[in-house]
Design goal:
The complex is a heterodimer.
Chain A: E1 4-5, E2 10-14, E3 19-21, E4 24-25, E5 31-38, E6 44-50, E7 56-58, E8 64-68, E9 73-78, E10 87-95, E11 103-104, E12 108-113
Parallel strand pairs in A: 2-12
Antiparallel strand pairs in A: 1-4, 3-9, 5-6, 5-10, 7-8, 8-9, 10-11, 10-12
Chain B: E1 5-7, E2 10-13, E3 19-24, E4 31-38, E5 42-50, E6 53-57, E7 64-68, E8 74-78, E9 87-94, E10 103-104, E11 108-112
The chains are: A mainly beta, B mainly beta.
Chain lengths: 114, 113
């Protein structure tokens, strides 16, 4: 079965420190990759996406992610976090032709400590 | 441009009742997807509609159903509610293609007592 694994359920990090949130997906010929953020009592907001082309993708709020096909990973990074980055982060994948539903990881709770 | 709207935002029902949730996509978007979010299971796909046709369905019992109207607005219905149906139900819309960015609404928080 196609699956998405977010290796860390919770990540505490001090303000202005770098952070990496890890995401691995089950292998497939083609994938479309997404990172979403969810703030308390809100829906999901797209941070960035990889559809094709450059494997390094830049998104909003200073986040970036790198698609690594050989390791089937799509890790999210930010060089310096702020208190306002405290939220739940979800990695999501669409497999194959693209006419398939998004498969979400379980989420990673990022807590930024002052 | 207005975002995805969902009504109601909060709902409390008792076991055995039925409920209907509504979603209005962003103007011009023709695809609407529904997800159930719970602490234990995370985000699970319910179904996706495009041009009033269901084109994908997740692994949920038949108590969960949906439809889409000609103006792209969508509703989902849950009949014979169970305690385990308590969740945040999220609706997302996208322009046309499946891999387009999905824009999510704020969700409907359903509590079943």
């Amino acid at each position: 079965a196609q699956s998405v694994t977010q290796l860390d359920s919770q990540v505490p990090v001090f303000e202005e420190a770098p952070v990496e949130l890890r995401c691995n997906y089950s292998s497939s010929v083609s994938v479309y990759l997404f990172w979403y953020v969810q703030y308390p009592n809100q829906g999901l907001q797209l941070l960035l996406k990889y559809l094709s082309g450059s494997t390094l993708v830049k998104g909003i709020n200073g986040f970036e992610a790198e698609f690594n096909k050989s390791q089937t990973s799509f890790h999210l990074r930010k060089p310096s976090v702020h208190i306002s980055d405290t939220a739940e982060y979800f990695c999501a994948v669409r497999y194959d032709s693209g006419n398939t539903p998004l498969v979400f990881g379980k989420g990673t709770r990022l807590s930024v400590i002052a | 441009k207005a975002g995805v709207t969902q009504t109601p935002r909060y709902l409390i029902k008792t076991r055995g009742q039925q409920v209907t949730l509504s979603c209005s996509p962003i103007s011009g978007h023709r695809s609407v997807s529904w997800y159930q979010q719970t602490p234990g299971q995370g985000l699970q796909f319910l179904f996706e509609y495009f041009s009033e046709t269901q084109r994908n369905k997740g692994n949920f019992p038949g108590r969960f159903s949906g439809r889409q109207f000609s103006n792209s607005r969508s509703e989902m219905n849950v009949s014979t509610l169970e305690l385990g149906d308590s969740a945040l139900y999220l609706c997302a819309s996208s322009l046309v293609l499946a891999y387009n960015e999905q824009f999510f609404g704020p969700g409907t928080r359903l509590t079943v007592l």
